[in-house]
Amino acid sequence: MPLLRIFFTGLFISLLGTLPLGTLNVAAMQISVTDGVGPAINFSLGVLLVEMLYVRVSLVGIDWMRKQEKFFRWFGWFSVLIVIALAVSSFVAAADPHVKKNVILSGTLHRFWLGVTMSALNPMQVPFWFGWSSVLFAKKILLPRNDHYNVYISGIGIGTFIGIAIFIFSGQFLVKGLNAHQKMMNWIIGGIFAVTALIMIWKLSRKKGSFTPDQASA
């Protein structure tokens, strides 16, 4: 069935796009370690909601988005600053004996809205889905129809949730394996954020002529 194929295509692409280390899945892992699985799941729901909205907008506004590369580039640099702030917060939590949690990820903001905010400020997913959707349109797998769009976006949402859930429960496993050494986890996660920021800087520093599916793994 075409709709079933579209659903699993969206799910598969989304799952593979979520598995590489990135800002949002690592943030979910740290929330699961410091605050528990429930808050981390709320965070992931906020993330996937925004991602699904972004995909929907990209599907109906492809021509407009082709002209907005400069905007997404500057937005990308802003996103780098957020990742650097997350890395610094994790390192502070690891180095200061009086600080146990990342002050950004474990603040007073509800984790769902934190997920919404961080996902909205992560523009890399826009060119990622723009590129893949363009490929699917070109191959006639995805057609400009509402039923295709709805099934495609549903698959994407489930794929994203599964991918982030892997990080959430991996974080729980790691913290048990380290005998709940929270400081060690903060060093590790801070390092991941720092590497992510360097990768984002490298990608944004390269000259890009157009959006392609491989531009947004962060």
Radius of gyration: 18 Å
Instruction: Give the overall shape.
Output: globular
**Which percent band covers the strand fraction?**
under 5%
Low-confidence stretches: 209-218
Structure in words:
By secondary structure, the chain is mainly alpha-helical. It has one domain. 75% of the residues lie in helices and 0% in strands. The protein has nine helices and no strands. It has helices at residues 2-18, 23-34, 37-60, 62-65, 69-95, 111-120, 125-138, 146-177, 182-205. Helix 2 packs antiparallel against helix 3 (37-60) and helix 2 runs antiparallel to helix 9. The longest helix has 32 residues, at 146-177.
List keywords for this structure.
mainly alpha; disordered C terminus; 218 residues; 75% helix
Summarize the structure.
The chain is mainly alpha-helical and 218 residues long.
List the topology elements.
Blueprint: H1 2-18, H2 23-34, H3 37-60, H4 62-65, H5 69-95, H6 111-120, H7 125-138, H8 146-177, H9 182-205
Helix pairs in contact: 1-8, 2-3, 2-8, 2-9, 3-6, 3-7, 3-8, 5-9
